[in-house]
Amino acid sequence: MPNFPVDEPLLRRLAELMNETDLAELELTDGRRSVRLARGGPPPPPVPAPALDPAPAVPPDPEPAPASPDPDRPEEFADHVGVVTSPMVGTLYVAAAEGAKPFIKVGDQVSEGDQMFIIEAMKTMNAVLAHRSGTVAQIFVENATPVEFGALLAIIE
């Protein structure tokens, strides 16, 4: 790929492309330079807390313990400290090649920095690494499937 000028027209065109296609993130690399755009913005303004009513004379019934997340509903794990999410849009692979041994399986021990998946984006293979050490408790994705930015991939306990 020839060198590309990193200038205002390029950045404007990439931003337009993101808006036209509803992309959350876009990265362009020419081998030695890279431009990455990601959607974001200032955090929403804080919402004032409602005024508290005086405490009732009788304590309320204790709430039941929250149910554990359903493994068939990965969105229930979104706030889990061990959730591994997709850092980009692309095609996810669980092994280095078709028919090769997967990088991980449920029950495997992983260390921080171990490769868990590969995501192909714009003909570039990108490693998805473990952000913490632990045991792989869940894998939510299949080989060679498209993933979105932020998609839940796995849980490390």
Task: Explain the overall architecture.
By secondary structure, the protein is mainly beta. It folds into 2 domains: 8-38, no CATH class; 74-156, RNA polymerase II/Efflux pump adaptor protein, barrel-sandwich hybrid domain (OB fold (Dihydrolipoamide Acetyltransferase, E2P)). Helices cover 9% and strands 29% of the residues. It is built from 1 helix and 10 strands. It has one helix at residues 8-21, and strands at 25-29, 34-38, 83-85, 90-93, 109-110, 115-121, 124-129, 134-139, 145-147, 152-156. The protein has a 4-stranded antiparallel sheet with strand order 3-10-8-5, with no helix packed on it. A 4-stranded antiparallel sheet has the order 7-6-4-9, with no helix packed on it. It has a two-stranded antiparallel sheet with strand order 1-2. A hairpin with a 4-residue loop joins strand 1 (25-29) and strand 2 (34-38). The chain is globular and about 50 Å long. The two termini are 42 Å apart. Residues 64-71 have low confidence and may be disordered.
Total helical segments: 1
CATH topology of the largest domain: OB fold (Dihydrolipoamide Acetyltransferase, E2P)
Largest sheet, in brief, is: 4 strands, antiparallel
- Using the 3D structure, state the CATH architecture of the largest domain: Beta Barrel
**Percentage of β-strand residues:** 25-35%
Number of strands: 10
Which shape, going by the Cα principal axes? Answer: globular
CATH superfamily membership of the largest domain: RNA polymerase II/Efflux pump adaptor protein, barrel-sandwich hybrid domain
**Strand arrangement in the largest pleated sheet:** 3-10-8-5
Mean pLDDT: 78
The total tally of domains equals: 2
Unreliable spans: 64-71
Q: So what's the CATH class of the largest domain?
A: Mainly Beta
Radius of gyration: 21 Å
- Structural class call reads mainly beta
- The helicity comes to under 10%
Give the termini separation.
Answer: 42 Å
